Amino acid sequence: MVVTATEFKTNFGKYLDLLSEEEIFITRNGKTIAKVVNPQVSAVDSLRGMLKNVPSDLDLNSLREERLSKYEDNV
Predict the structure, then answer these.
(1) Of 3, 5, 42, 69, most Cβ neighbours within 10 A?
(2) What number does CATH give the domain 2-74?
(3) CA 49 to chain centre
């Protein structure tokens, strides 16, 4: 969701409630100045809905293992 800084400030409580459902991008003069996210939603969960061909069992541990294996290959 995209809202202006004035709208966000005026209806802060409303947008806090909406954070459980989606991220909020705050704009000022037509430019995005902030992104507000729910800290209870992991980055993996938010990316899963955006990326194509992502396995449904993707989790932080599997990402960490893959990253470490690539790092070890380069060392």
Answers:
(1) 3
(2) 3.40.1620.10
(3) 10
Tokens 């938010």 belong to residue: 46
- Alpha-carbon span 23 to 52, nearest angstrom: 20
Q: What would the pLDDT profile of 6-54 be if each residue is shown by its tens digit? A: 999 999 999 999 988 888 999 999 999 999 988 776 565 555 555 556 5
Name the β-bridge partners of 32: 27
Q: DSSP label at 75? A: -
Question: pTM of the prediction?
Answer: 0.55
